[in-house]
Amino acid sequence: xPDWSAVAAAVTPSTVEIQVAAxxxxxxxxxxxxxxxxxxxxxxxxxxxxxxxxxxxxTLADGxxxxxxxxxxxxxxxxxxxxxxxxxxxxxxxxxxxxxGLEVGDPVMAVGNPLGLSGTVTTGIVSALDRPVTTSSSExxxxxxxxxxxxxxxxxxxxxxxxxxxxxxxSGGALVDAAGRLVGINSxxxxxxxxxxxxxxxxxxxxxxxxxxQWIAEQLIEDGQAExxxxxxxxxxxSASVGAATRSSRSTRRRISCSTSSTWxxxxxxxxxxxxxxxxxxxxxxxxxxxxxx
Length: 294
Hints:
The chain is mainly beta. It has helices at 4-11, 44-47, 137-140, 210-223, and strands at residues 15-22, 25-33, 39-42, 55-59, 65-74, 79-84, 107-112, 120-135, 155-162, 174-177, 182-190, 205-209, 239-242, 245-248, 262-270, 276-284, 291-293. It is globular and about 85 Å long.
């Protein structure tokens, strides 16, 4: 069985609380320490709602707080990197693993600050992989005091589904394996709907796979933005003649659809580590759970 006490002791120093303040109020999320330079990985929706000049405060596990600025953010993957202005010399970067080797049933731990309760850990298993999850801005408005400034486009993630309890405030926190290695960034939870009155964990949480999160983070640190590939298709009407008969495409047009969790990777630029990684992917899904940002 995993030694969760040892895992918590190893991961907690690499997990931070992020507070974003503006005139509308203060929102709280979680982040993970990427390196000794003070780069903190979190969710885009944690830092995006306070306008162009937010006041960001990062509190480390030892209780010390530091001002931070946004190094870069990417709405389409719901990821962002903030940088401590005067990082301490004893920062503890998290050990980064790989999400590629995860299997359904693997034990995992979520670390974060749900409802402002710093250093909270919960355990569970990987319930599913490559789960197509769509979270719309209108759903995030239910829990974000800065909702009127949130992104207007939905965020679609091919996510890790976990049974580890994830609640509001866990956003941007670490999902780690039994060895304490980062395998995902907690980002959203399934909701029963506003009529149920249930806004916390129902045992269905979602995390962005670390292989994608790390690649986006590298771009945000280097360029302040991330590159994405996309496929554009523009239909046009045509006609065909056979003898004296002419048939228009309007009468034969068929709807094109894609099956659940079909994914296209587009290879692109070389990362700062020298490996060639995909620029982005498009997931087309017909099954989209109702989710809210955590």
